[in-house]
Amino acid sequence: MRRAYASEAAAAPSGGSGKLIVNFALPHQTVLKKHEVNQVDMSAVSGDLGVLADHVPTIEQLKPGVLDIISDAGSTKYFVSGGFAIMNPNSVLNINAVEAFKLEDIDSQAVSAGLAESQRLHSAAKDEKVREAAAVEIELYEALQAALAGKSK
User: pTM of the predicted model, to two decimals?
Assistant: First the structure.
């Protein structure tokens, strides 16, 4: 088997702004549509990554974590529970998430209480399905806690 590597991304079309165009959607809402930004940082199954204009095309599965959208106006951070990010060759990034909430809107006390309850359910579970469901909740709450701990950075 011969391994091939991605080629260099195509240059921005003439007259292009050099900006990354972001479309960010949830099942029930379009968060951003054709929004020009400088960079998007995200947590993917393959690792954390930052995406700029002209990034090599890629498809990334998002894991629970922070999605940081950076523009000239500043940074907006969302917590996403999962989804996909698709970088196209024309500097368009499409992000489809299952759920997303602005980090500033998340109550850290509610997260701590939810984590404690999920841990209690996990250790008390007699049924494997209940234990597995609690383990998924624990992973999500731990990712939320980590995101909130780093939100002032």
Answer: 0.79
Give whole-number Cα distances, 19 to 32, 44, 90, in Å: 15, 22, 10
Mean pLDDT of the chain: 88
If DSSP codes are grouped into helix, strand and coil, which group holds residue 53?
coil
Closest to 147 (Cα-Cα) out of 113, 106, 114, 119: 106
Tell me: the pLDDT tens digits for 39-70? 999 999 999 999 999 999 999 999 999 999 99
Q: Assess contact for 135 and 119: CB atoms under 8 A.
A: no
User: Could you tell me whether strands 47-52 and 39-44 are parallel, antiparallel, or unpaired per DSSP bridges?
Assistant: antiparallel
Tokens 């959208």: give the residue: 69
**Range list of β-strands (E), 28-142:** 29-37, 39-44, 47-52, 58-62, 65-71, 74-80, 83-87, 92-97, 100-102
